[in-house]
Amino acid sequence: MVVGGRRNTVCFLATFLSLFIMSLLLTNVEAFGYPSTVMPSVSWTNVVPTDFSFWESAGVRPILVNGSFVCGFHCKFEGTACLFAISIFPSSLDSNSSFSTQMVWSANRNKPIGLGAKLQFSQEGDLTLEDDHDTLVWSTNTIGKFVLGMKLTHQGNLILFDGNNKTVWQSFDHPTDCLVLGQRLVSGQKLKANMSSTDWTEGLYSFSINSSNGYFVASIGSNATLDYYQSYGSQRNKRSQFYAIFSDNKFGPFNFLRAGVSFIQLGSDGHLRYFSWVESEWKEVDDLFKDELNQCDYPLVCGEYGICSMGGGCNCPEPDENNIAHFKMINFDNPDLGCSPNVPISCESSSHESLLEIKHVSLSTSYLPDNSNITDIESCKQACLNNCSCKYVVFRSYNPMFGQSLCFFGSEALSFKREGDTYYNSFVFLKVQSSIVPNPQRNLSSPAHFPQTKKRQNVGVILAIILGATFIGFLIFTVFLLKIKKDPKDVEEDYLGHISGTPTRFSYEELKVATNNFSNKLGEGGFGCVFQGTLPCGAQIAVKCLDGFGPVKKSFIAEVETIGSIHHFNLVRLVGFCAEKSHMLLVYEYMCNGSLDQWIFCRDKALALGWQCRRKIILEIANGLAYLHGGCRQKIIHLDIKPQNILLDENFNAKVSDFGLSKLVGREQSQVVTTMRGTPGYMAPEWLNSVITEKVDVYSFGIVVLEILCGRKNVDRSLPEEDAHLVSLFKRKVEDGQFLDLVDKYNEEMQSNAVEVVEMMKVAAWCLQGEYAKRPSMSIMVKFLEGKMDDENEYDFSNPPPPPAEVETHGHQMDAAAITASPLIPSILSGPR
Q: Which terminus of the chain is more exposed, N or C, with fewer CB under 10 A?
């Protein structure tokens, strides 16, 4: 939670300018441009733009931009159907070109969204897309994987990364119909063509790498069971997966004529084409199947049941020997749409079906599944007639004398090509309806039928009476239950009202008036926004409005339960709360100097906190935690100690806040098993086992002490890789005896008191031991900081239990370094003196 007041604009911009730009919502302020990286929590809404920019002229509402790649809402001009997608936008590099964009990846191609839809990058690290009715449309499912940020790379790859800059999720692993330069296609992945040039939904064509033999395979069908192209040219990786990289001049077995801004696309017609940006427009440079396939080899080149002639044109199958036409063209002006049966075949009328031989044609596909146990043509035909799903059959006889024949069934109608295969005898038969099926509704009044009908009518009346009586009884019972059963929200509200020591309960209207209709926004956290307000008595308050369900409700109840009945000078006081149906609000005392992170990470020397102030803040944080761990009726483990959750009043007194993740523990319990929660970088190593004690707060306190003394964040990606992690840097400096290098170099008072600052660093080391039993309790830490005790013991930090490389958490693999860099402080630190 961020509750603040007296913020200095210069300091804020100097420290957090990049995060500010990253968190911009869909804004067409091109003076700022669009970021390529954002951090949670942030959301974007698909709205009609107020400033019609050149992006909008191409139907794109940007969120992230990197070079010629744009990630955002991609909408159709003729409607509001939109996708969250990545497009190549060469116009951003070539101002003289027409506004032409090419979508190369999308998240929700089968579920387009409209205006009002929201894309949200949550504090938990999940990227979700919801429609305007708050229904989930798409998600990366990355909750619990310690996602730190999201970025669009210069290659057009959308990546969610963790605290170690390792990829947690990437769009390259989920291709749609395109590949871009630098992208791999790995066995197990598929390109799926669009249904048409105007329909984004998945069509019938797919392109992949066979996981068993490494062949490139182009297929058609709802289950991609019919192959029309095969070629070898993939490589193996260390996991024995086959893959191919789209480089500047090659992709698998295909060589290209041109490099530059380009992409490969599987078209809705089954062609795999290479496009490049040439002379201010997209041009097809190459058809990658051209060396293996001719125009009639594509399965639906003439639509269903159509016959493709090599000289050009599409026709329907000819009439049978009785001059009966079984097929008609769907559209004479557009013959490649195919043909349809005059009488549709049906499994219910299989006795009226027969096979129509189509002469001088062969099937366009070469890799139909065969029935090798059938060796003669009559058995092949009969097997198709006995199979309800069979729509056509192909029989090929290589050597009839030796029974070398193949029988192919087809369950999905395709195109055929004129001039049969001359290498061996080939016969093609289409299943057709041979006669008019009698209408089962006829002759219902015949004498033979009437008694049966009357009997059925009597049974129907009896059933109707029974069902009616049952329904009425159920309706009465339901109404009775509704009268005696309270709404779950009412039960929850009653529960909150009876918690021991519950603070003042406000109505929503009271808080709306107190905050002037929520007009003065102080900040925004993972679960909602915080607004400044004034009660009728004149007291200043900060109102936190929680937005959401599930975890948000749990956080709300946990906050009221935890700090509603406890009072300590170094804990933020919960003044009251509001729980009215969908409204969940928490009312705190107002802390005018905001959160600690805004002061210790500030580079403005005029606003920097001095040594004495920082030392006082460290003691006050320790006091607040000691009270939680030992001064309450129940032990409370905070579980999310970090500078953002330490607030400062007008006299820079520190108070611990935000108890949404806290855990109540019985005094008789020494350990507790709970789900992993907290902020990456501040979490103790024992979280890897999910068995924790209050010492996890001690570890987090040690991290915060280091940040206060060093004047920098625990993880700072702006620094060189070897210095990015503060705990690792601390270990290295300790080993080299270079303590003074860690003291906040932007603060003269800290530098002039460097000896005392280094002594305080030993406090951090004491708290950061890998074995939680060796860390001090917060009550002992308070006594030491107050000078009421000395400790001459040696502390061995050299051999904490090493965390595993990867940890299974809720079915997902997680890098242990994302939880914490387990400190390896050498025994040179003899402990606090």
A: C
Model pLDDT for residues 418-436, shown as the tens digit of each residue = 865 444 577 889 999 865 4
pLDDT per residue as tens digits for the range 221-265: 766 668 889 888 888 887 788 999 998 778 988 887 665 688 999
CB-based contact 775:765 (threshold 8 Å): no
For residues 210 and 242, is the Cβ–Cβ distance under 8 A?
yes
How far apart, in Å, are the Cα atoms of 239 and each of 170, 187, 243, 443?
19, 11, 11, 68
What DSSP designation does 751 have? H
From 322, 198, 218, 213, select the one nearest 264 (Cα to Cα): 218
H helix and E strand count, the chain:
13, 49
Contacts of range 749-755, beta carbons closer than 8 Å, 24 or more positions apart: 749/608, 749/610, 749/611, 750/610, 750/611, 750/614, 750/709, 750/711, 752/611, 753/611
Phi/psi class of residue 227: alpha, beta or left (left: φ > 0; alpha: ψ in -120 to 50)? beta
581: pLDDT confidence band, cut at 50, 70 and 90?
A: confident
> Is 640 one of the catalytic residues?
yes
Amino acid of residue 327: F
Task: Give the DSSP H or E segment for 206.
Answer: strand 202-209
For residue 25, count other CB atoms closer than 10 A to its CB.
11
Nearest to 773 by CA among 791, 789, 796: 796
Task: Sheet containing 361-363: give its strands across.
Answer: 314-315, 307-308, 416-418, 361-363
Strand partners, 231: 216
Binding residues: 544
The helix (H) or strand (E) run that includes residue 494 is helix 488-497
From the CB of residue 431, how many other CB atoms can be counted at a distance below 10 Å? 24
Q: What angle do CA 334, 340, 342 make, to 5 degrees?
A: 130
Computed on alpha carbons and rounded to an integer, the radius of gyration of the chain in Å comes to: 35
User: pLDDT category, 118, cuts 50, 70, 90?
Assistant: very high
List phi, psi (to 5°) of 526.
-65, -30
**Are the CB atoms for 241 and 187 separated by under 8 Å?**
yes
How confident is the model over 564-592, as a mean pLDDT? 85
User: Which of 182, 294, 172 is closest to 228 using CA atoms?
Assistant: 294
Can you tell me whether residue 41 is helix, strand or coil? coil
Alpha-carbon distance 497 to 489, whole Å? 12
* Residues in the annotated binding site for ATP: 544
Query: Residue written as tokens 């909750």?
Result: 143
Choose, from 227, 640, 697, 744, the residue flagged as catalytic: 640
Which residues lie closer than 8 Å to 592 by C-beta, 6 or more apart? 4, 5, 6, 540, 649, 650
DSSP state of 349: G
AA letter at 68: S
**pTM of this prediction exceeds 0.70:** no
- Contact yes or no for 556/547 (Cβ under 8 A): no
Contacts of 353 (CB under 8 A, 6+ apart): 345, 385, 431, 432, 433, 434
For 655-673, the three-class secondary structure string (H helix, E strand, C coil) is EECCCCCCEEECCCCCCEE
- Which domains are assigned to the chain? 1-174 (2.90.10.10), 295-433 (no CATH), 489-589 (3.30.200.20), 597-818 (1.10.510.10)
- Tokens 């061996």, residue? 424
CB 122 within 8 A of CB 108: no
**344: how many CB neighbours lie within 10 A of its CB?**
9
Q: Would you say residue 28 has pLDDT above 80?
A: no
Strand 184-186 versus strand 646-648 pairing type: unpaired
| C-alpha to C-alpha distance for 311 and 314, rounded to whole angstroms | 10
Report which of 135, 140, 159 is spatially closest to residue 36, judged by C-alpha positions.
159
Nearest to 197 by CA among 128, 259, 150, 267: 267
- Predicted confidence (pLDDT) per residue in 389-429, tens digit: 888 888 877 655 555 677 888 888 888 888 654 445 778 89
